[in-house]
Design a protein that fits this description.
It is a single chain. The protein has a four-stranded parallel beta sheet, sandwiched between helices. A two-stranded antiparallel ribbon has the order 1-2. The chain has nine helices and six strands, in the order ββααααβαβαβαβαα. By secondary structure, the chain is of the alpha/beta class. The N terminus is likely disordered. α3 runs antiparallel to α4 and α6 runs parallel beside α7. It has two domains: 149 residues, Rossmann fold (3-Layer(aba) Sandwich), CATH 3.40.50.11840; 35 residues, no CATH class. Helices cover 38% and strands 13% of the residues.
């Protein structure tokens, strides 16, 4: 067998990265396939039995248990379902009656189609678009737009979350909120939240396409962003 490269080691015949070891470095996959024998530096070693039991106890909490049970049943059929179908079945198994949709205005047509499907399935639906309130930068205490002026109307993910809370939604679905705005929505959502669409302007909302093309046709552009981040070309706010 060929020797491992510097910074690499072989485990069960597969090459692994020893530098900054995490699950992303592992080739063993013993945890998923139950083949036995995790690598010596497996991340499971970062915590003791007390922490493991604490985590298990959280799964026993009623809300977490209900979500995990619904997800487990839905995942049994996931290879034969679109994500739209999975989301509908998950909501039904959770016992959700009222579903909130937090949508980007660019995806209002898609969100309306989703609403029709959900309503036909017996759910009540309430949607809030990202530009609700029509805020400008000054309204939210943000710096002026480049070149001055008010700039475009801003997204308002915290208000989206609050309005869905006021409506008493049982489950919220994110439809293409911007990077960062989705972060704020997840943080402030009162109800459990799942994502149906991840927005990507370039790839038709298929974010993985950028990863698939990272070693081929899109490599140069991705490297420009990588270099800018590494070399301090992206200013911190």
């Amino acid at each position: 067998m060929a020797a491992a490269l510097p910074g690499k080691r072989r485990w069960k015949g597969k090459l692994m990265d020893d530098t900054g070891f995490s699950c992303l470095s592992c080739a063993g996959e013993a945890c998923e396939f139950q083949t036995g024998g995790n690598p010596p530096q497996c991340v499971e070693g970062l915590v003791g039995e007390a922490v493991r039991e604490e985590v298990r106890e959280r799964y026993r909490e009623p809300e977490n248990h209900r979500i995990m049970q619904a997800a487990a049943l839905t995942s049994e059929r996931c290879a034969n379902l679109t994500r739209v179908q999975e989301t509908m079945e998950f909501a039904a198994r959770m016992g959700a009656r009222k579903i909130g949709i937090a949508t980007c205005t660019m995806l209002l047509d898609e969100s309306r189609t989703l609403r029709k499907l959900l309503e036909r399935a017996g759910f009540e639906v309430f949607g809030v678009a990202c530009k609700v309130e029509g805020n400008r930068r000054a309204d939210l205490g943000l710096a002026p737009a480049a070149g001055g002026g008010e700039g475009p109307v801003l997204c308002n993910p915290v208000m989206q979350a609050r309005l869905l809370e006021e409506e008493g939604t049982d489950l919220n679905i994110v439809m293409g909120l911007c990077v960062g705005h989705d972060t704020l929505f997840y943080r402030h959502s009162h109800a459990p939240t799942t994502t149906l669409v991840t927005k990507d302007h370039v790839t038709g909302h298929n974010a993985c396409a950028g990863l698939y093309a990272s070693k081929s046709v899109y490599r140069r552009r991705l490297n420009e962003t990588v270099d800018a981040c590494r070399e301090g070309g992206i200013a911190q706010v």
